[in-house]
Amino acid sequence: MRLVFASNNAHKLDEVRAIMPSGVQVLSLHEIGFEQEIDETGTTLEENSKLKAQAVAAFINDGMMIDGVFADDTGLEIEALGGKPGVYTARWAGEPAANRKKALAELADKDNRKAQFRTVITLIKDGKTIQVSGIVRGRIATEEYGQGGFGYDPLFIPEGYDKTFGELPAELKNNISHRARALHELVKII
């Protein structure tokens, strides 16, 4: 089975390929020649995930031998900030280091550091659109720890662990992450 993952993010692509079963070939946007920017104009993770999947599905033609398209959108939802940054996670303050700095600054005087990462995946296959999701709960550290992962990983400590995603080995993170949980749901339906 050949599926297109609607992303050119190398970190995400590696994570997805590591989780998918061996019988599924995951292609990036670059590998199918999709070079357009997809505007994430949705106000929810569900909407943005669907927008991305639909844009790529519209690009695919029969000669490409593609079985389906899937796209994800992920948000960090911090309880004390009313669920922010949520759908704006990647672009909250501009770039990853600024995003982490903003999260720490906004939580500086707060005791409640509960947060969750939530991923929504939209699959378009055989003319059907299906959405699945994955959540990992945890808390935001008081400072950055670790160099691994990407985005908010150096700040997020998943429940049951005392290290951030940025400190955990990639293999372990790939087994417990929000994206992994959503992908496991995806695997059940493909």
What does this structure look like?
There is one protein chain. This protein is of the alpha/beta class and 190 residues long. It has one domain (2-189): Maf protein, CATH 3.90.950.10. Helix content is 29%, strand content 25%. It is built from 5 helices and 7 strands; from the N terminus they run E-H-E-H-E-E-H-E-E-E-H-H. The chain has helices at residues 10-19, 45-59, 96-107, 170-176, 178-189, and strands spanning 2-5, 25-27, 68-78, 85-86, 114-125, 128-140, 156-158. Strands 1, 2, 3, 4, 5, 6 and 7 form a 7-stranded mixed beta sheet that branches. Helix 1 packs across helix 4. It is globular, with a radius of gyration of 17 Å. It starts with a strand and ends with a helix. The model has no long low-confidence stretch (mean pLDDT 94).
